[in-house]
Amino acid sequence: MPYVEKGMQVGLFGGSFNPPHAGHALVAEIALRRLALDQLWWMVTPGNPLKSTRELAPLKDRLERSEKIATDPRIKVTAFEASYNVRYTADTLELVKARNPGVDFVWVMGADNLAQFHRWQRWRQIASTFPIAVIDRPGATLSFLSSVVAKTFDYARVDEADAPRLARIKAPAWTFIHGPRSPLSSTAIRNGKSSG
After folding, report:
1. Which residues pair with 108 in a beta bridge?
2. Which domains are seen in the chain, by residue range?
3. Rounded to two decimals, what is the model's pTM?
4. What average pLDDT score do residues 59-65 get?
């Protein structure tokens, strides 16, 4: 796990990054700026229970590619979940919380993931562990309002103007952050439909 100090605001940006691309870097940069983060952990997962492992590049390759793309020194590329043999996000967040008392974390995710978030293992627990920042992605700007998660936690939505203090708000709390969007997609890149 990357080194942090008490009082820091840290974003947790997890994914398979298969492959990582400039769209991921844009989400990370928006999160750093708009959430007033001291660090952002770019967490390259060993696998994804909702995706086929046949098409997953080796963890080492995804980690190296992520390090080349994530150039901001506040971004810490890590694959610590593999060391702890963690499979589900809910377990990762519990581990992070237990090992880093006094640090304010926020889960960062692209809006394109919100539609299926309710399919994640123990998704309600995830939403109740750390606040969530949903970063705008192409095609997801309006559809996020109809997601199961947005409807379930509509009472916990924080105004986008308050995003810099989101990490310090007790979960459940979430916000949607508008901003520049990249059309890049890992799936499209793997299928040869996109450059980058």
Report:
1. 13, 133
2. 9-190 (3.40.50.620)
3. 0.88
4. 96
